[in-house]
Every structure is written in structure tokens, then in C-alpha cells.
Design goal:
Layout: E1 3-4, E2 15-21, E3 24-25, H1 27-30, E4 34-42, E5 49-55, E6 72-79, E7 85-98, E8 103-109, E9 120-129, H2 130-140, E10 144-146, E11 153-163, H3 164-174, E12 177-182, E13 187-192, H4 193-197, E14 201-205, E15 212-217, E16 225-232, E17 237-244, E18 259-263, H5 269-285, E19 288-295, E20 305-308, E21 316-328, E22 332-344
Parallel strand pairs: 10-13, 14-20, 16-18
Antiparallel strand pairs: 1-2, 2-3, 2-6, 4-5, 4-21, 5-8, 6-7, 7-8, 9-11, 12-13, 15-19, 16-17, 19-22, 20-21, 21-22
Helix pairs in contact: 2-3
């Protein structure tokens, strides 16, 4: 069953959702009580989350319907008359109740507190490629590893009281990769950040399509160069690999005068250069950011690109780093997107 929610904007179909609790559909039971539902999709670093806000004038959520922590929620969203998009499963993490008026808020995480991936631990790894490291961690948690990972042999890695996921995201980020747990903790997916930036946009928005927007352009975020110092075991010397600002990146060669200096364990000059390049890429990507609100669309997911036009020199292709899908009685279905510019428009519109 699909539960419709009234839309404040009349030029789009009525939004709809489906919600399940421990595998059983509860859509029909809660449809009349639902005030707001938000699903937040993060590209990396944070667990995806689902928040359901319901009115409770008769007190049922304090009694028989009180949700159990650790219970699972499943969520689908979209529009009536269309196939709803399944965004995965979530573990109930927090229940908040307030009155008057009586309202219950249920917050659930895609990688819940009971998931072993969130257990902090210390461990050392010797002579493993990034692919082998990812495969070992994925296999340990019963997940399938997906994504192309270039051959990077790492002599030694130490996990310092980190969760497996935080550790893997840190190491992957040092070499220009993004990784994320998906599909109800069944997949561990890797992307090369540079490859994501080159993909075509899934949607195009003009200035008139933006319900609201805010931009930030910071030259200070982009250093003139990144230097990674590493120990050469053959010469027993501390050497440095240097990468300058990339003229083809969104910010071009424009940069501050700063030089970012990092000291990391590395298997040699090639790996140090790879790490320096990844750090520069991340910092150049951070230069221009936008936050926009648009009509809701399930295909607006973290890791995908959108095209923006009609905003002068800020026009171009942008990577979605965070997508918050909000369904409400008053506002209908809206998307709030946090974006980083992947490529400028060839000609400002």
C-alpha cells in the first residue's frame, strides 16, 4: 500500500511512501499520523538515517506501539502511480517523545549501533593491497565488495581503536577512494572520487527550479601544493612527494599561497604522490559548495551529479555529497542537497 502525503506544490504528482517495521508493512497503520519523514543519504563518513515524526493524540505510541530499539525499518519513497524506490533498511536507534502536542520521533540508522562494523578495535595489517584490505573487511562482515580498486600495495597499516568502517574510509580516502555500506549491510561499495566527478548529471536545474539556494566559494580551501613526506627504507631518508594545483580541476590553478604538508606511511614515491594527488583533489573539490532545495526526486542520491545552469559563474556540474529527502503534510516532497562543484560550465549561463 502506498501512503500519499499532500503536496504544497500543485505542479508535481502526489508524493507517496511505504514503511515497514521488522519486515511487516505498517504504512496503512501510520498514514494518518505521519507528520514528517526524512531520509538522509550521505556519500561517506556518516551512516544514512531515517527519521519518522508522528502525532500521538491518543497515546498509542507510549504503550502498545512504542518502538523497540534495534527494531528494523524499511522505507520506500516516490510518487503515486510510479514505482517507489527502496532506499534500504534501518535500525531504530533513538525514540524521542514531546508534548503538547504529543509527538513521537523515531530515528533509525542504516548502519545501526548493533552492527559489528561500528565496534571500535585495534589491529595491524601487513603488506596488503587496498583491494585485499577491503575484501578482508567485507568478508569478515559477510558483505560483497563492489567497485574497481586500482592496485595499491600498502606495507603496513594500523587500525587505532577505530571501527572497521571508519578505518577503511580513512585509508580509502588517502588514495582518492570513497567507500560506503549499502543494500541493508550486504554490500561494501568503492568509488574512485575522480570517476564520480566525470559522470553525467542525473538531472538539470535552472535558477527557476531552485526553491532556495546558498553558495560558498572559498579560495583559501585550495592550497598551491600538497607535500607528502615519507620514509625511504632503502636510503633511510625522509623524502617528499609534491603535487601542485590542477588547472583542469573545478577551481583551476587559482589557489592560496598555502602548502599543505603531510607525513604518512607510504610504500615509496609512487604511493606518496598518489596520496598527495588525492588530498589535492579533495581540497579543490571543497572550494565551491552549494546547498539547494528542489522538488523531490528519488534519483537524487549521494554520489550522483546534477547540472546547474542560470547562476552565472557558479553554473556547472555538481557532485551530491548529501541528499535529504523530506516528506511532510505541509510541504509535500522536497530534496535538500549539499553539493560540491565537479566541473564548471563551459560557458557561464
Amino acid at each position: 500500500m502506498e501512503a500519499p502525503m499532500s503536496a504544497a506544490r500543485q505542479d508535481v504528482p502526489a508524493p507517496a511512501f511505504e514503511l515497514s517495521y521488522n519486515g511487516k508493512s505498517i504504512t496503512a497503520d501510520i498514514a494518518l499520523y505521519a507528520l514528517n519523514i526524512s531520509y538522509t543519504d550521505h556519500l561517506s563518513g556518516e551512516s544514512d538515517e531515517l527519521e519518522v515524526e508522528l502525532e500521538d493524540s491518543d497515546g498509542r505510541w507510549l504503550n502498545a506501539w512504542y518502538p523497540d530499539k534495534g527494531a528494523t525499518l524499511g522505507f520506500k519513497l516516490g510518487y503515486r502511480g510510479q514505482t517507489l524506490v527502496d532506499v534500504g533498511g534501518f535500525d531504530v536507534d533513538e525514540v524521542e517523545y514531546s508534548a503538547p502536542p504529543s509527538v513521537v520521533r523515531i530515528r533509525a540508522l542504516a548502519t545501526g549501533v548493533q552492527n559489528p562494523l561500528r565496534t571500535k578495535q585495534g589491529r595491524a595489517y601487513e603488506k596488503k593491497t587496498l583491494q585485499e584490505l577491503a575484501q578482508q573487511i567485507a568478508g569478515h562482515h559477510g558483505m560483497k565488495l563492489e567497485g574497481k580498486i586500482e592496485s595499491v600495495l600498502i606495507d603496513r597499516l594500523t587500525q587505532y581503536h577505530e571501527t572497521d568502517l571508519a578505518f577503511l574510509q580513512r585509508v580509502a580516502g588517502n588514495y582518492g577512494y570513497i567507500c560506503k555500506v549499502m543494500d541493508n549491510n550486504r554490500k561494501l561499495v568503492f568509488w574512485k572520487r575522480g570517476s564520480l566527478l566525470n559522470e553525467a548529471g542525473v538531472m538539470t536545474f535552472g535558477l527557476g527550479d531552485l526553491i532556495s539556494w546558498r553558495a560558498r566559494d572559498q579560495l583559501s580551501q585550495v592550497p598551491s601544493a600538497v607535500e607528502v613526506s615519507y620514509h625511504d627504507p632503502k636510503t633511510r631518508q625522509l623524502l617528499t612527494a609534491r603535487v601542485g594545483a590542477d588547472a583542469k580541476a573545478p577551481g583551476g590553478k587559482a589557489s592560496s599561497a598555502d602548502v599543505v604538508k603531510l607525513t604518512r606511511k607510504s610504500g615509496g614515491k609512487g604511493q606518496a604522490e598518489q596520496q598527495a594527488k588525492a588530498e589535492m583533489e579533495k581540497r579543490q573539490l571543497a572550494r565551491t559548495s552549494l546547498s539547494i532545495t528542489v522538488d523531490g526526486a528519488p534519483q537524487l542520491a549521494a554520489g550522483r551529479n546534477v547540472e546547474l545552469s542560470g547562476i552565472g559563474k557558479l553554473s556547472g556540474r555538481y557532485l551530491i555529497e548529501r541528499a535529504c529527502h523530506r516528506l511532510s503534510r505541509q510541504g509535500g516532497y522536497l530534496c535538500e542537497l549539499d553539493l560540491k562543484r565537479a566541473a564548471p560550465a563551459e560557458k557561464a549561463l
